[in-house]
Design a protein that fits this description.
Number of strands: 9
Number of helices: 6
Strand content: 25-35%
Order of helices and strands: HHEEHEHEHEEHEEE
Strand order of the largest sheet: 5-4-3-6-7-8-9
Structural class: alpha/beta
Bound molecules: S-adenosyl-L-homocysteine
Shape: globular
Helix content: 25-40%
């Protein structure tokens, strides 16, 4: 009987390990073929993308597609961004130790986790209460003690914790909210998709130097719309 229990436990353990190895292989392949091959060179970003278990951030029915080259539905009409876009926005934000980041649009919590591998603290706001709750629980289980999730309308930012060295907006609007510009630290960078929320937007990077904001316009992208609380 004892022997049977031991055999069953070790069998279960080896299945779990095989599962983990399979995901690790898929993740490394994702980074090689979708991210490094397309020009992301920042080593920290590549390492974070190799580390964060994306399959834990997607619904159970999408686990087999977790490492594929596209966004995936996460419920409530929302999506987890395509892996390349997460890596690209992370690299553009110039993450480093000592920095404080704000993310608008927690969604699954995946982008927050990638960023949290590289900066000191990530504050993240989500407007769908269920997603805010689920992501906070998921990030806690995964041990991300440096991410603070809050339910609310991110348009107004998070003044209590401002200024931020990095602001990532992962939902689209036709303009950059003024409160977010105001909450950007000196030398800080804000990355956001700006344009028609119903069709295509352009990725914008704002940089604040000596209080002056400069704008850089990059690739066309497609994000879900930034909503407003009534
Ligand atoms: N960064 C997410 C994906 C973002 S999808 C991830 O890694 O999974 C965009 C998210 O922004 C959605 O979850 C949507 O509910 C949220 N959102 C939309 N408008 C918002 C607002 N005003 N404030 C905060 N979150 C918002």
């Amino acid at each position: 009987m004892k022997l049977l229990v031991v055999i069953l436990i070790s069998l279960y353990g080896s299945i779990l390990f095989q599962e983990r190895d399979r995901h690790t292989r898929a993740r490394n392949q994702m980074v090689d073929s979708q991210i490094a091959a397309r020009g992301i060179t920042h080593q920290g970003t590549l390492q974070a993308m190799r580390k964060v278990p994306r399959h834990i951030f997607v619904p159970p029915s999408s686990v087999s597609e977790a490492y594929s080259d596209r966004p995936l539905p996460i419920g409530y009409n929302q999506t987890i961004s395509q892996p390349f876009i997460v890596a690209y926005m992370t690299e553009l934000s110039r993450p480093a130790r000592g920095k404080k980041a704000l993310e608008i649009g927690t969604g699954s919590g995946y982008q927050a986790a990638v960023l949290a591998e590289l900066v000191d603290t990530v504050y993240t706001i989500e407007i769908v209460p269920e997603l805010a709750r689920e992501s906070a629980a998921r990030l806690k289980i995964l041990g991300y003690g440096n991410i603070v999730v809050r339910y609310g309308d991110g348009y107004k930012g998070w003044p209590e914790h401002a200024p931020f060295d990095i602001i990532l907006v992962t939902a689209a609007a036709d303009h950059i909210p003024q409160p977010l510009k105001d909450q950007l630290a000196e030398g800080g960078r804000l990355v956001m998709p700006v344009g028609d929320p119903a069709t295509v937007q352009q990725l914008i990077v704002l940089t604040k130097r000596k209080g002056e904001i400069t704008e850089q316009r990059l690739e066309p992208v497609r994000f879900v719309p930034l909503k407003r609380l009534k």
